[in-house]
Amino acid sequence: MPYIRLFNPENDIMLQWPAERTIASAHTLSPNVEALRRAGAMLPVWWSSPGDAVIVHDDDSLYSRKWLDEMSALFPFLSHVSIVSATDTGKPGAPWGWSGDAARRLSRAGAECPSIAQLERMRMLSHRCTSLMVMEYLKQNSTIPLPLLPTEATTVEEVQLAVASSPNGFYIKSPWSSSGRGVVRFDTISEKVLQRIGGMIRRQGSVMVEQALNGIQDFAMLYHIADGKAQWKGYSLFFNSHSSYSGNLLCDDATIEHRLVSAGADRKTLIAIRHCVANALSEIIGRDYTGWLGVDMLLDRDGMIAPCIEVNLRMTMGVVAHFLAERILAPDTEAVYSVEPHSPREKNNSPTIVDGRLIAGELMLTPPGGAFDFKISVTERKR
């Protein structure tokens, strides 16, 4: 089924307001977020299917079409994707993430969208307490070793009680936040800390309190939900810079699993987590959501895996990396997918593409001229 696709990386920000409010009128974005959205508008072509259309800024339409034609000559599967036009009216919408704001923009382009009630249900499932529900499910239905479960606190007094059992520090997380914002680590409680936490509670009604772990490797498991059932689709091995997303390793899932096991993870536990988390997602989310999602996890220095740090109920950069590795990376090749502020490109690192597969160099994934670079850099070719 063809879709109208929208890259709206600001979606996590929009979720802090009820869907009824954000579907009614546009909210002003920071210049940085607006620049990221515009620079990455064409990113959805890489996971699109035949007949899909992508929404871009009106001023970028002709330029984007020219770039898409050029890329289609290198990667033929892109020739079946287009820039949204009036003929696309009636196709279902497929944003990066659902919110009232996403529905407003997609409806304006002629796409079919969920009802306000459905959007609000998805918004509530995007609350960080969903990760707590997944952890509680695992505690009741599996023998997987688990860290101390997070706590939702609606007052600073509840926060003080929760952190009493976290001698190594703790994280305070806003229910809805984006790119590391709204996630703060504290080592001790002070009056100043309590004032800051109180402000977070006043803005969004509660905070999540989590024990700080001795993590050595961030990773995620990727799932797709359809017809009420979640299916495991792969791993995501990602890295952050100052709590914000920086990039992903591009390789096959067997290689990522081998790296996790080499770092201390137990392979049988990883496989058990795959299935148990899928069951939890089907039970908790399956009736109300269709699409991709990522479950952030953490491997600690003792080999324990925290199997649900966060549920990202939307497309993720890990899912993007999964598609890129599957669709355009040559076999037995490793690369890094990254998103970073634009910088001049090295002329001696042009991409080498053979039979629609990237085997060397650096490939830009969006039209040039944007404030951010979305790119793949090949790091290793094994043959």
Automatic annotation (TrEMBL):
Keyword annotations of the record: ATP-binding, Nucleotide-binding
Superkingdom of the source species: Bacteria
Domain ATP-grasp: 136-341
Source organism (scientific name): Muribaculum intestinale
InterPro entries to which the protein is assigned, alphabetical: ATP-grasp (IPR011761)
MF GO annotations: ATP binding; metal ion binding
Protein's name in the database: ATP-grasp domain-containing protein
